[in-house]
Amino acid sequence: MGEYENILGTLIIGVFINTFLFGIVCVQYILYYSRKLSDTFIVRTGVSLLFFNDAFQSLAMIYMAWFYSVSNAVDPHILNETLWPYAFIPIGTACTALITHVAMAHRIHCLSRRLWLFGSLILISMAAFGNGVAYGAGIWITPDIDLHGSFKILVASWLGIQASLDILIAGLLTFYLYHQRTGTQTTDTVINRLIRGAIQTGLLPTILAVAGLVAFIVRPETNLYVMFVIPIGRTYTTTLMDGMNVREELKERLLRAKEPTIILSNDVWRVQTRTHRQLDVGCLSTQDPESLLPTESNESSLEPSAPAVQDKKTVKPLMLEDLIFPLSSKQQNPWS
Q1: Which pTM was predicted?
Q2: Could you write out the three-class secondary structure of 200-261?
Q3: What is the pLDDT of residue 3?
Q4: Residue 8: pLDDT above 50?
Q5: What percent of the chain has pLDDT over 70?
Q6: Is the distance from CB of 239 to CB of 197 less than 8 angstroms?
Q7: Which residues pair with 308 in a beta bridge?
């Protein structure tokens, strides 16, 4: 391939793919803000940060493509210089990946109740973020693109840790969600939908990260790896926002459920004696309906907001916010 194909062609393809994905995720952002969900301040802030980062990076990529292919089309030497949007690619991608990984780690913590696991995932995500920012800063202060091959270790550690973390998070979410299956059609359908979303969130960025890593190792003197790295951030936000927006659909599925094992109530009842598997999803409980009716034998075992006890251990019911994200900033039933 010629000089333009090696440097400019693959970069333009990456910008096209990124712009297409940005259009898709913009629809997801519009849906999110139009529904006016009562998310916590932290969740709303995270979504806003993702939107501004996506918009800024996508516009910067379009400007970079214009600068190289239009403004300086007759100057091939400009291709050897690093423009600031080029250096921002790993920085912006690392920021998006960090927010996504923290959100997924929080979901795993809600499901597993293991603080050490949450802390480990955060440390790994910070390591990937640090390597991405270091790589971006390195090429920012090294304008000669021919010298970027010296950052091979940083690129390998950044993309390698990030891809490994995506696989780990997807595997953990799939494991914990699968063990929340109850055997009823509606709840299992919801769980399967969440499992699919977890796999999608980890699979697409992993494929692009591995492809980018291989391309950088094989052809470090070209921009072939950039074609795969540029869209990584948009794959994170597209799949993450899809999971955010699907919550209302999952809620409606559960509310329309016809199974006799689905109970609707105004309060989240915590059963003190749990003789078989139970999944509390918001105000939905998949326990035998007759066992929840107040009787002389079980009236004392049903108390609103009382801790569930089984073998002298506190058992906290699993809420829909544990499976997805907190839906309300108030300490109350999100479905009421």
Answers
A1: 0.76
A2: HHHHHHHHHHHHHHHHHHHCCCCCHHHHHHCCHHHHHHHHHHHHHHCHHHHHHHHHCCCCCC
A3: 59
A4: yes
A5: 72
A6: yes
A7: 315
Are 189 and 246 spatial neighbours (Cβ–Cβ below 8 Å)?
A: no
- Give CA–CA dist 279/182, Å, rounded: 7
Over 90: is that where the pLDDT of 160 sits?
Answer: yes
10 Å Cβ neighbour count for 8?
Answer: 19
What's the full length of the chain, in residues? 336
- 29 and 51 in contact (C-beta within 8 Å)? yes
Give Cβ neighbours of residue 296 (< 8 Å, ≥ 6 apart). Answer: none
Residue 224 has pLDDT above 70, yes or no: yes
Structure tokens at 177: 């969600």
What's the burial of 284, exposed, middle or buried (CB within 10 Å: 0-12/13-18/19+)? buried
3-state secondary structure 62-131: HHHHHHHHHHCCCCHHHHHECCHHHHHHHHHHHHHHHHHHHHHHHHHHHHHCCHHHHHHHHHHHHHHHHH
Alpha carbon distance 102, 121 (integer Å): 8
Q: What is the DSSP letter of 7?
A: I
So what's the pLDDT on residue 2?
Answer: 52
> How much is the mean pLDDT over the chain?
76
Q: How far apart are CA 97 and CA 10, in angstroms?
A: 23
